[in-house]
User: What shape does this take?
Amino acid sequence: MTEHSRAARRLDGVGSTIFAEMSALAVRTGSVNLGQGFPDKSGPDTVIEAVYDAMRAGRNQYPPGRGTPELVDAVIRHQQRHYGLGLAPENVVVTTGATEAIAGALLGLVDPGDEVVVWEPYYDSYRAMIQFAGGVRRPVTLRAPDYRFAADELEAAVTDRTKLLLLNTPHNPTGHVFDRAELETVADVARRHDLVVVTDEVYEHLTFDDHEHVPFATLPGMFERTVTISSSGKTFSFTGWKIGWATGPADLVAAVEGAKNWLSYSSGAPFQPAIAQALDHEAAFHEQLREDLQKKRDYLCDALAALGLDVHVPQGTYFVTTDVSSWGHADGKAFCAALAERARVVAIPNQVFYEDESSEGRHLIRWAFCKEQDVLEEGVRRLRGVDLRA
Ligand code: PMP
Ligand code: GLN
Assistant: This one.
């Protein structure tokens, strides 16, 4: 038997994704899954029918690597309609979910030794992909209660080796929606240091109250240095279809495609025309989804607060973060393990999204509210049924 690991060193420390781990725990313990962010209700039936139609019409072989022309055109129309951005086909590449767009952007744009500034807590694939590219992470921390960042910390994170800023708004896991002033601070740094910005905007349509999503690429002068990533998963509740896209100036998009070519080459043939149809005709779906999610956010935030938890009400996304130190817990991972066994509810320990697991996020827990109301109610009923105080 070989004693040393036969896996490549690029896998060191990245482990498996927390979402798969916690969903497996939910199945094993019969828990209500408020962990992994996926809705338990599918998107529009008309869009599902469009997939069947595409399959019956024979659209079952490799589509173009860049994306099916209908979807590329629908993404162009979407960016124009919602944000006033005028794109051409060379500004768009379709990917296998936002996940592949993130991989393509980092593998296509980061050289070994390049530094990547990333706002923590950060989505877990960022860590893996920066590492796969041989890049060096430079975190800037978003701090409770409002999850804004300090401009001087951003400035301090940038060095002469910085290649890229990796932004995410609306932000997973905190639910923070970067406002225009914050984005202008980022833009100023990008301009002065001549940096590329990769911005993950998969929750672009899921903002609450009067919080408005501002695409980073719409800031003056920023389009030319920005790769914007989005996905149909969150906007249309088809997370398992894995149809995403990256948009930006032709050379940056070509770099993303250059890597994507060797990852999947092309993505889900029959799903692409269906998502094109969704982008063109189903805006009412995500408007309704946003309203429903806001009510569910309010329900879950109120219920968690009534249980004595310190709740950070999110401005967007699927998620609410609570601080469990008010229940006497110092370690989120241990808390989530006990939560599944004792209450049969699964949530996500935010500490895994921080560079230093023993710091800021140690007692922060993320709960997903993108579930049916009766599922949320059952989760809350279970939480009320046991005393989870340490
Ligand atoms: N980025 C963020 C911030 C996410 O929350 C997710 C999960 N949807 C992704 C990227 C991955 O998106 P996709 O499922 O389209 O690969
Ligand atoms: N984006 C989802 C979340 O944050 C999960 C996606 C995944 O499982 N990779 O929960």
Q: What stands out?
A: The first helix runs from residue 18 to 29. The two ends are 43 Å apart (CA to CA). Residues 37, 97-99, 123, 168, 172, 200, 202, 231, 233-234, 239, 242, 244 surround 4'-deoxy-4'-aminopyridoxal-5'-phosphate (ligand 1) (CB under 6 Å).
